[in-house]
Design goal:
Bound molecules: adenosine-5'-diphosphate, iron/sulfur cluster
Shape: globular
Number of strands: 28
């Protein structure tokens, strides 16, 4: 079967010459219905029956709006939903199971949210027939007698109560009025809110207005509110953005308990692979082409699913969905840094109202990427502001300061301009430089975003723009705060590579705050470790080499990681397991020498 997709937000007939229509060989033979201006502001409409799949229009479209793909005929049977003519198409669906956490793993724009919308009853699947209003009857008669048919049958009769924790918690802060306590009281059908407040460390903010919470607090509140409801199926979309690793694992534990102890069905979308690994029993990979179509695969045990995902290839199905393998190294890989010093700093202290920060002496080298790990609100930004000379230390003095560029953790989106205008305004001529275009814009796929309005970007798109804006600035030290938030696994790897190359090529240095240990592992040369009491007393030290930094940090968080025997990727050990005990006694929390056979 052939599917032709026109991404409506990319197709811009006002700004092109209808190259897609002009060059189509079928149109040239006089069959104009093959591709033509449609009723929606003249955006292109392609007839899948008449199109011969030559691919000329795909290449001619200046905005990359067209996708034409030939798919195996048998998939037609599995077409679950299509968003209108030439719209995104979803094939197959997973089935939630009581007592199990199932994960959905795939790139952004591949249909995971659409899947949740259907399984939670918000969208009736149309099985490709978008001209009529879809009815449950059609779906149920097609899937009668199957597990999916059974499940959807119950959904259609209102027999499955579902709760969704949405992906973007930032919006919650704007949309919901009242305090944390009010919201949780309303949600607390299972009478567990008090316990969740304690587990998720929300005690300090229960009387705060929701509009005044930080992203991490909003995330924990949103998850607590979802878990407090009484439902059969819980859909949790990206629970870890804005949380530190300690909080990620607490949240993951609470979600697992919901399935293990209370027998609920849980479906999660998560791009932090260490967290997904810990969280899910089975995982459905979702592959296809972003924005065009997505295919949900059968479930695999979580370990296998993640390994297959990293390998980029499903051998049994003979399908390759990525050209490259995502690889991990067993030992801290980077060479001993011998480069020139960018800045040396002595022991510093800073008192800021109630908050006190103390950091040890250290040095950052030119070209070095330093990871910063540790809880939120322990003074990481304050530290960098001191290096930049923007804040004066209360104790200690810096001989020099450095020019700093900054990507904040919460990226502001309320900008009415296009991405292109934003870049020209912020970077001027630098935007067109070959360095920016080749080393930053190309890998981060900015071309596809240029014509979009900033306020309409998705979370992952906005993140890529924000990273690029920061890297494009002329500075000596780049502070990049949580670049992985809302990026999918592939985009995280690309972001890591882009940041590294930008530093190496320009001889600049970066401090990257992030909580995804896979991301830290592939990105950083060394680590600074922050700790203490969030919001009250922060303590920072380093940079250390990766092994020492990870050991210090994970000892604090109280978890150990083993290495997967096939891919060498880090996996969280069960507390008290043989490996956990062994590694603790050796003081090796992360870079273990042996890959493990233990499941
Ligand atoms: P994911 O959750 O994997 O990021 P989504 O399910 O959100 O993917 O989206 C898959 C594709 O479907 C995207 O290209 C998106 O633009 C498109 N899409 C989502 N909702 C609609 C809609 N209501 N109408 C048309 N297209 C949509
Ligand atoms: Fe025409 Fe189809 Fe070729 Fe596009 S792919 S130019 S619509 S025949």
């Amino acid at each position: 079967m052939r599917i032709a997709v026109v991404e409506k937000d990319r197709c811009q007939p006002k700004k092109c010459q209808y190259e897609c229509v002009t060059f189509c060989p079928v149109v040239r033979q006089g069959i104009t219905e093959c591709i033509q201006p449609g009723p929606d502001q003249g955006k292109a409409i392609i007839s899948e029956e008449l199109c011969i799949g030559c691919g000329i229009c795909i290449n001619k479209c200046p905005f990359d709006a067209i996708h034409i793909t030939n798919l195996p005929e048998q998939l037609e049977e599995d077409l679950m939903h299509r968003y209108g003519e030439n719209g995104f198409t979803l094939f197959r669906l997973p089935v939630p199971k009581a007592g199990r956490v199932i994960g959905l793993l795939g790139p952004n724009g591949i249909g995971k949210t659409t899947t949740i919308r259907i399984l939670s009853g918000q969208e009736v699947p149309n099985m490709g027939d978008f001209e009529k209003k879809p009815t449950w009857d059609a779906v149920l008669s097609k899937y009668a007698g199957t597990e999916l048919g059974d499940y959807l049958g119950r959904v259609s009769k209102g027999g499955v109560k579902t709760v969704v924790k949405p992906q973007y918690v930032d919006k919650l802060g704007r949309a919901v009025k009242g305090t944390v306590r009010d919201l949780l009281a309303k949600a607390d059908e299972r009478k567990v809110a008090d316990k969740l407040v304690e587990t998720f460390e929300l005690g300090g903010v229960v009387d705060r207005e929701i509009g005044h919470l930080s992203g991490g607090e909003l995330q924990r509140l949103a998850i607590a509110a979802a878990l407090a409801r009484e439902a059969d199926v819980y859909f949790i979309d990206e629970p870890s953005s804005y949380l530190d690793i300690h909080q990620r694992l607490k949240v993951a534990r609470a979600i697992r308990d919901l399935a293990e102890e209370d027998g609920k069905a849980v479906v999660v979308i998560e791009h932090d692979l260490a967290v997904l690994d810990f969280l899910a029993d089975n995982v459905h990979l979702v592959y296809g082409r972003e924005g065009a179509y997505g295919i949900v695969t059968l479930p695999r045990p979580v370990r296998t699913a993640i390994n297959v995902y990293l390998s980029g290839e499903m051998r049994e199905e003979n399908i390759r969905f990525r050209d490259s393998v995502i690889e991990f190294e067993e030992h801290p890989p980077r060479h001993q840094w011998t480069g020139t010093s960018l800045i040396q700093f002595p022991h510093l202290e800073k008192q800021q109202g109630e908050f006190h920060l103390a950091t040890g002496a250290g040095e950052i080298k030119q070209g070095e990427v330093v990871g910063i790990v540790g809880p939120n609100a322990t003074g990481k930004t304050t530290f960098v502001k001191m290096l930049a000379g923007a804040e004066k230390p209360t104790v200690g003095e810096l001989a020099e300061s450095v020019r700093v560029a900054y990507k904040p953790q919460y990226v502001k989106a309320d900008i009415p301009d296009t991405v292109e205008t934003l870049f020209y305004t912020a970077l001027g001529k630098e935007y067109q430089s070959s360095f920016f275009q080749n080393e930053i814009a190309r890998p981060l796929a900015l071309k596809r975003l240029e014509q979009k309005v900033v306020s309409e970007l998705s979370g992952g798109e906005l993140q890529r723009v924000a990273i690029a804006l920061c890297l494009g600035k002329d500075a000596e030290l780049y502070l990049i705060d949580e670049p992985s938030a809302y990026l999918d696994v592939d985009q995280r790897m690309v972001a890591a590579r882009t940041i590294r190359r930008a530093m190496e090529k320009k001889g600049r240095s970066a401090l990257v705050v992030d909580h995804d240990v896979y991301f830290i592992d592939v990105l950083c040369d060394s680590l600074m470790v922050f700790g203490g009491k969030p919001g009250r007393a922060g303590v920072g030290s380093g940079p250390y080499d990766l092994r020492e930094g990870m050991n210090q940090f994970l000892k604090d968080v109280d978890i150990t990681f083993r290495r997967d025997r096939e891919t060498l990727r880090p996996r969280v050990n069960k507390p008290g397991s043989r490996l956990d005990r062994e590694q603790r006694s050796l003081g090796e929390y992360f870079y273990t020498k042996v890959g493990s056979d233990e499941e």
